[in-house]
Specification:
62 residues; two-stranded antiparallel sheet; 1 helix
Length: 62
């Protein structure tokens, strides 16, 4: 979680490492909570519920 709270997200892409022991990335729920807790939701695509409330960060998996 070394992302600066001043950082502005413009896209989020996750990839699964071939050897998880070498590169450990947070799961979606943990990452999503960090983004919301630190006010980093501006400028990144969001998943919204039927009432247009932001409920998650839209991610691409590669």
């Amino acid at each position: 979680m070394g992302i600066s709270t001043k950082y502005r997200l413009v896209a989020v892409t996750f990839t699964k490492p071939e050897v998880p022991a070498i590169l450990s990335i947070p799961d979606y729920e943990c990452f999503n909570k960090y983004v919301f807790d630190h006010g980093m939701t501006r400028g990144v695509l969001m998943v919204m519920n039927k009432n247009k409330k932001r409920i998650g960060v839209k991610v691409q998996s590669v």
